[in-house]
Amino acid sequence: MCRGNQNGDLTHETTSSTFHPFQLNLVRNFKFRSVQSSIQNLRFVTSATSRPEAIITPFHDSHVQAAVICSKKKGILIRIRSGGHDYKGQSYVARAPFVIIDLFNLRSIDVDIENESAWVESGATLGELYYRIAEKSKAYGFPAGSCPTIGVGGHISGGGFGTLFRKYGLAADNVLDAKIVDVNGRVLDRKSMGEELFWAIRGGGGSSFGVILAWKLRLVPVPPSFIVLGPVEKLLPLMQDNFPELNVDRSDCTEMSWIESVLYFARISRNESEALLRRTQQSKSFFKAKSDYVNEPISEAGLEGLWQTLIEVKAYLILTPYGGKMSDISDSETPFPHRSGNLFKILYMVTWDDYRENEIGESLMRKLYDYMAPYVSKSPRAAYLNYKDLDLGRNHDVHTSYAQACIWGLKYFKNNFRRLVHVKTLVDPGNFFRDEQSIPSERSSRKK
Were 158 and a residue from 14, 177, 309, 385 both cysteine, which residue would form a disulfide, CB within 3.0 to 4.6 Å? Predict the structure, then answer.
């Protein structure tokens, strides 16, 4: 069992098969309400949703250390969650007995304007991070996602794109340091973890390698005089020269600061910035999502067919333009490989209102995804890790082989997948940190 010592820290013992941490909020009897409140996909809030043996909400790094050590000794899986936006619920469901380490209480944010950096714990949301940066200075921001309730931990470890990424790159491209609890329960920073592991967690998915406690981020300049990226006077000539058919004039444009743009994209009024501190979305749905990358322009006929398909399946797309800074960064700089050569990324989304429509929703998405096959990237047909998609393939057990994992791994990581497997083998050879799409260990697969 896990016990608290005289200092309030957690130690571990092996005389019991149950968890009993001192000064730790351990939830028994399948009490799942705290998790349900932040789950975004209602498909995973049903009576059939698997329940954890316990939900652990640590208040200190040592609590995470103890939870990892105890779980490893007892052979029970860990699921790590920070914001609840996991599209496939892998941060809070599992097929085998498991516990959840919910980082909700580890969400401190220390903004250092003088050094243009910030330490943020993984349980914080993007909204909380943005609010605290703007609280200190209107001249700095951070290039991450537009949804304020996303948890920092998962977002950054999967890459993390947002409205500034053509200017400053991904969230993961702007990480200076990190703290992680490894499989042996050690707390490591960049220096002690080494550059290989530091490379892997910046886009390779942190939950394959340990529990990321915090990130040190590089803040980026967004002074008000820049109006984020440039004033209307510079935009209008560009639009008139390149897209004259749109007839854009000044009345079509609104100038705003970076933090105002954050509120705008989150559909929050400019005078309600404290709404960024809310940790749950007001509206939720049952949904199915997938992603694609487009390397060449889609023909007019292809777009017409897409339009008809969208009407038929009642889906919507989000097209995210690439280029700029993203084309300047090497595909191997971080595990995130989707850089130069991509015109845009597609997020497909099908939503419905009742769990009894789950199969229909799945079928509609398959039709849309199949239609787009000729128009998107190939060999592999690429996908974005933070839009988890188990249709691409999944691991089946602790001994999943490299060849088996390549079925999905190459789609997310391309040529970086082999290096991720190498790092995993070095830091977690027994494949303790695992799920349906975690990086496999070569040593573990050889024991099969």
Answer: 385
